[in-house]
Amino acid sequence: MSSSKTILDGRVVSQHIRESLVPRIEALRKRGCVPCLSTILVGNDPASETYVRMKGNACRRLGMESQRIDLPNDTNTAGLLDVIDRLNADPNVHGILLQHPVPAHIDERLAFDTIALEKDVDGVTSLGFGRTAFDLPCYRSCTPEAILSIIDYYELPIEGKHAVVIGRSPILGKPVAMLLLNRNATVTICHSRTQNLPDFVKQADILVAAVGKPNFVKGAWLKPGAVVLDAGYNEGNVGDCDYASCLPVASAITPVPGGVGPVTIATLLKHTVEAAEKAAQ
Prior knowledge:
Blueprint: E1 6-7, H1 10-30, E2 36-42, H2 46-61, E3 65-71, H3 77-89, E4 95-98, H4 108-114, H5 126-133, H6 142-153, E5 162-166, H7 173-182, E6 186-190, H8 197-201, E7 206-209, E8 227-230, H9 243-246, E9 252-253, H10 260-280
Parallel strand pairs: 1-9, 2-3, 2-4, 5-6, 5-7, 7-8, 8-9
Helix pairs in contact: 1-10, 3-4, 6-7, 6-10
């Protein structure tokens, strides 16, 4: 068991990213360009409402513009696509974020894929995922990129390590597996149908928990000295890992809250600034 312990503080990493954006935003503003993130919220889901408000506040604190579009719950797919098409064509909008989840009657995948690649700052399009897998330029899904940013900030090695990802969602589990693979990790993806899950977790030098179940991963499952990235956020402000039992076994671990979450938002802001810079060229 590792004698030293590193708490992977996402607030520190987030602040580092945000501070690096300040001069870039100032340079854009001097050229008459204000980075603008447009967020679409369909319906009135309370958690989504909170997330959208947080993202808007984060934009404003950095001197960016935040545009919010609220659509009623009975909006159909065609109506949502019309809004996205209008934002795609608006030169003053640099990033488009469709808050997930949308109401069940809407074709969410079609809506995501209608977002122009150059404005897909949340990394949700099929084309963006394909380019991520091929290690080609695009905006990576924000939470997977945030996880890599935390690993890099704390100078934790990836190459040659065995990374185990629990979860296979198209905007978290799958893309983070691709990012780790492209950095020369050996990657195992586990999910709800995986048998003997603790046996796989026990092999992980790097564990990414993205399963959406509170306190799911137990410390007894971990390989001593493992690096644990908890991408879960569940009711009661708890992650997917049982922090109390994982902390003594891991060599490094993200807390919840204050781990991956703040870096995800900072990554979204960074992508929006990058999109504004490209548009201003």
